[in-house]
């Protein structure tokens, strides 16, 4: 399976990552990626920037080092109502919004609470993908959440860092189950390195291997071509990005 987009990456702005956007873009170019989503942590995460940082991504060039830049965020799912930690004014200024659980913001609770929060976040219409769902601290009803994601055209991220085993320990088994169920339900998958240093950009081998294990077709993986990814954004109601006309 060929992957041309890394949809989950961090820069120094996240507070605990170590590379600049230009360094990340250069690494993406070396790995043959066509598009790079820059998705720093949203404001409630300790060390994260103010929401102005995300709203001001409009000043970024659409291409760096020959790689198309997708302006995004990894937002925090804050409560059972599915609220995220950005104002509504940010939404039209962002191309790509991941919604994730992080322990400092949403303290782990029980399966019912996590399931309600995820479904509420999906149904809010504000997130395009759910990030690193394999975290064993957040059990949830996999079939209910993935069915809801399919119905609402929200992508399910397969997070390569979760599969390495040095972050969110114990995620591998749950990630496996998520892909198994997702393949049956027919969700759309996305692939993210969750890079916090430039040499992790485009490192997606474990995510790809897991998708291939369950025979997930490339047309269900939105990062397998620029056309699929950009058309997914329009499916989500995002405006067409004129600078990427040749990539649609």
TrEMBL record:
Residue ranges constituting the Polymerase/histidinol phosphatase N-terminal domain according to the UniProt record: 5-79
Cofactor(s) it depends on: Zn(2+)
Sites where the protein binds Zn(2+) 3: 74, 102, 132
Cofactor: binding comment: Binds 3 Zn(2+) ions per subunit.
InterPro entries: Phosphatase_YcdX_put, PHP_dom, PHP_phosphatase, Pol/His_phosphatase_N, Pol/histidinol_Pase-like
UniProt cross-references to Gene3D superfamilies, sorted A to Z: Metal-dependent hydrolases
Pfam families assigned: PHP (PF02811)
Binding site for Zn(2+) 2: 16, 41, 196
Binding site for Zn(2+) 1: 8, 10, 74, 194
Alphabetical UniProt keywords: Hydrolase, Metal-binding, Zinc
Similarity section: Belongs to the PHP family.
Protein name: Phosphatase
